[in-house]
Design a protein that fits this description.
Largest sheet: 8 strands, mixed
Strand order of the largest sheet: 8-7-6-9-12-10-13-15
CATH superfamily of the largest domain: Spore Coat Polysaccharide Biosynthesis Protein SpsA, Chain A
Oligomer: single chain
Distance between the termini: 61 Å
Structural class: alpha/beta
Shape: elongated
CATH architecture of the largest domain: Alpha-Beta Complex
Number of helices: 17
Length: 452
């Protein structure tokens, strides 16, 4: 019996076959071979209920207006139709071209109320799609949810790959275009779904590295979301047991990326790590200096800024470094303000970076060693990107080994060289820089949650 004959036979046995036929007025039926992306809009309730929902009709029209996309519909089957599908081992299909759900690129559910959740699982199962996001790979559709019920997505967070909160008319197109580009690049699905890369330059960190990874991971899971972030560890030519600890971190957090440099060079490590990040955002830290309060505040304000700096000089009451280190930091920043017109109080240390606006700038940077991050911040400032800084606490955990005369001389030489670079970079527009107080970023922070 042919596929068509099988469906005809099934329709003879169900109460209302019109639910599964399609062919309505204004139905759009494209040739799947002529598009780059196939999307199915799923409504987890009966056809009669779903067809009264205007949101699906709007998305159906918008998506099908894109020449490179095809959008079709599927609704939850009544038990009689489900029984026939399961008896014949036939997957649930779309109405227009009868494409099995697992052969689409994106499966978008409209969630209007919580009672639909069980129907979502049933439709995934009938469509031969794994129920949990972690069990799916790039051979499966990207499973998205939108609608009123996703304003509290936590109960079904493990099922969906992505939630579209708010009006989806514009957002869905952006998601579809981004997923098409990422899928064509053949990147791993786990990497595609990551939002944040944590960039950690490392040199002989055997005493601090593992505890940093464990403690920070707890905060990242709370703030960014489980499986939404990854470590990028750049070993700066360590000579102790650091490489073995990096291997253990990679084993414990498999999506981590490890990079090995043959010689110590902080700027090179930072450059390589940022260029290796495939996420929209990067969080730069030192092994012994990161602040969960700053991370949570910066993440909640990320859409306002291109770079958010955590400044150790923004509030002297939070800086517990020794007097000599504080003097060196003041001297460096005073020099940057005097020579380059820098309006901030710090360029080094932890920072949240929007990579989509910074990639071109990162490619233009010529400095390495200690002034690489200074250069890209100055370039971003002159380009007119939005920058912000907030004070972060710092405690001197490691004793000062020497007077650092060699490092001071190197920094002075690097700044002299940086001057010849930056003076060739014109100001594209007025400077856009916000400075926040520690009190501002601590508002609405649940400290018990961060401590736990």
């Amino acid at each position: 019996m042919s596929k068509k004959d099988t469906y005809i036979e099934i329709l003879k046995r169900v109460e209302k076959p019109g639910r599964y036929l399609g062919g309505e007025w204004n139905e759009i039926k494209k040739n799947p071979k002529n598009v780059d992306l196939k999307i199915v809009l799923a409504f987890p309730d009966l056809y009669e209920i779903g067809m009264s929902y205007l949101g699906q009709k709007i998305l159906y029209s918008i998506l099908n207006s894109q020449p490179s996309m095809l959008a079709e519909r599927v609704f939850a089957p009544w038990p009689d139709y489900e029984k026939e599908l399961r008896k014949r081992n036939i997957p649930l299909t779309s109405l227009e071209n009868r494409i099995p759900l697992h052969k689409f690129d994106i499966l978008g559910f409209s969630l209007l109320y919580e009672l639909n959740y069980s129907n979502v699982l049933n439709m995934l199962d009938l469509g031969r799609i794994p129920l949990l996001s972690t069990h799916r790979n790039l051979t499966h559709p990207l499973v998205i949810a939108g609608g009123p019920a996703v304003f509290n997505p936590e109960p079904v967070a493990t099922i969906f790959d992505l939630f579209c909160i708010g009006d989806g008319e514009k957002t869905f197109i952006e998601i579809a275009e981004a997923y098409k580009e990422l899928k064509n690049s053949k990147k791993d699905r786990a990497r595609i779904l990551k939002e944040l890369s944590v960039i950690v330059p490392i040199y002989n960190e055997k005493d601090e590295l593992w505890s940093m990874a464990e403690q920070l991971a707890v905060h990242l899971d709370q703030i960014i979301g489980i499986d939404k972030w990854q470590y990028i560890l750049i070993d700066n030519g360590s000579t102790d047991s650091t490489p073995e600890i990096v291997r253990q971190i990679k084993q414990n957090w498999p999506n981590s990326i490890k990079i090995r440099l043959e010689y110590p060079n902080y700027g090179e490590a930072l450059s390589v790590g940022l260029k290796g990040a495939e996420t929209e955002w990067a969080f730069v830290i030192n092994v012994d200096w990161w602040d969960p309060v700053f991370l949570k505040w910066a993440w909640s304000h990320r859409k306002r800024y291109d770079i958010i700096l955590g400044s150790k000089r923004g509030d002297n009451t939070l800086n517990k470094q020794g007097k000599y280190r504080r003097l060196l930091s003041w001297g460096l920043n005073f020099t940057l303000q005097l020579i380059f017109g820098f309006v901030g109080s710090d360029t080094h240390g932890q920072k949240l970076i929007r990579l989509s606006t910074m990639r071109d700038i990162l490619e233009e940077c010529e400095m390495r060693r200690g002034q690489f991050d200074t250069e890209f911040i100055l370039r971003a400032m002159r380009k007119g990107l939005w920058l912000a800084e907030a004070p972060v606490p710092i405690v001197e955990k490691r004793k000062q080994r020497n007077w650092m005369f060699k490092k001071i001389a190197q920094n002075l030489w690097d700044i002299f060289f940086l001057r010849s670079i930056i003076h060739k970079v014109p100001f594209s527009r007025s400077i856009r820089y916000h400075r926040w107080a520690r009190e501002d970023i601590e508002q609405n922070i649940n400290f018990n949650e961060l401590e736990n």
